[in-house]
Specification:
Catalyzes the reversible epimerization of D-ribulose 5-phosphate to D-xylulose 5-phosphate. GO terms for molecular function: D-ribulose-phosphate 3-epimerase activity; metal ion binding. It catalyses: D-ribulose 5-phosphate = D-xylulose 5-phosphate. Keywords: Carbohydrate metabolism, Cobalt, Isomerase, Manganese, Metal-binding, Zinc. By secondary structure, the chain is α/β, with parallel strands linked by helices. The chain has one domain: TIM Barrel. Helices cover 37% and strands 18% of the residues. Helix 6 packs parallel to helix 8. The model has no long low-confidence stretch (mean pLDDT 96).
C-alpha cells in the first residue's frame, strides 16, 4: 500500500478548523485527537466538533480517542461521521467487542498502544482490527520529539502483521516530520500522522505531498515491503 499522510488538526488553528481542513486537501485522512483530561492531561474536542468537521470537509476523519471509557464513546464518533476510530487498549474494557462494534457501524477499527505498552500481548486481537497505532510520543500533547526507541516496536508490529497475513494498516503518531518519516517507513509503518510538520509549513498541502514522497521512497527500499 502507498504511504498515507494524516495531518493532525491538533496543530491547526482551532478558530479556523473548516479552512484548515481544506488547506490539506489531498491528505488521506484528517487526524482528529480527542482528549478528555483524564486518560491524558489535556482537553481538546468532542462529538459536536467532529460532527461539524464531517460536514465541512470531504477528507475522511480519523478520530484518535485518548479518553477513558472508549467502550461507551467510540461508537458515538462513528455516528458523528468518523471513517476510522482509534481506541487505546489501555483504556478499553472489552477491545474485541469494541472493535467489532466500530466495524459494525461502518468505520475502520483501530487500536492504539502507548509507548510503554508492548504489542505482543495483543497479537491475537490483530485480526479484529483495520489499523494498529504505535504511539511514537507519550499521548496528550502535540509538538513532542520523536522517540527513536519505538522503532523496534514498529518492526515487531509489522512482523506480527505479516505473520498472520493481515491487510492491517500500521500507523505512527508523534514527532513525524521530514527528519523521522523515512525511519518509520523503513521500520514498517505505512500511515503517518503529522501535525506541526504539516500545519507549521507555509504550504500544508505541499508538505503532505513531500512527506508522502519521502515515505514512499523509504518503503520501496524497506525489506518488509519487498517481502510483502
Amino acid at each position: 500500500m502507498a504511504a498515507q499522510i494524516n495531518p493532525s488538526i491538533l496543530s491547526a488553528d482551532f478558530a479556523r478548523l473548516a479552512e484548515e481542513a481544506k488547506a490539506v486537501q489531498g491528505a488521506d485522512y484528517l487526524h482528529v485527537d480527542v482528549m478528555d483530561n483524564h486518560f491524558v492531561p489535556n482537553l481538546t474536542l468532542g462529538v459536536p466538533v467532529v460532527e461539524s468537521l464531517a460536514r465541512a470537509t470531504d477528507t475522511p476523519l480519523d478520530c484518535h480517542l485518548m479518553i477513558e471509557d472508549p467502550d461507551r464513546w467510540a461508537p458515538r464518533y462513528v455516528e458523528a461521521g468518523a471513517s476510522s476510530v482509534t481506541f487505546h487498549v489501555e483504556a478499553a474494557a472489552a477491545p474485541v467487542r469494541l472493535a467489532r462494534e466500530i466495524r459494525a457501524k461502518g468505520a475502520r477499527a483501530s487500536m492504539a498502544l502507548k509507548p510503554a505498552t508492548p504489542i505482543e500481548p495483543y497479537e491475537d486481537l490483530l485480526p479484529e482490527l483495520d489499523m494498529l497505532l504505535v504511539m511514537t510520543v507519550e499521548p496528550g500533547f502535540g509538538g513532542q520529539a520523536f522517540l527513536d526507541i519505538m522503532l523496534p516496536k514498529i518492526r515487531r508490529s509489522r512482523e506480527l502483521i505479516a505473520k498472520h497475513g493481515l491487510q492491517l494498516w500500521l500507523q505512527v503518531d508523534g514527532g513525524v516530520s521530514a527528519s523521522t518519516i523515512e525511519r518509520c517507513a523503513e521500520a514498517g509503518a505505512d500511515v503517518f500522522v503529522a501535525g506541526s510538520a504539516v500545519y507549521g509549513a507555509k504550504d500544508p498541502a505541499e508538505a503532505v505531498r513531500a512527506l508522502r514522497a519521502q515515505a514512499d521512497t523509504a518503503t520501496a527500499k524497506a525489506s518488509w515491503a519487498c517481502d510483502h
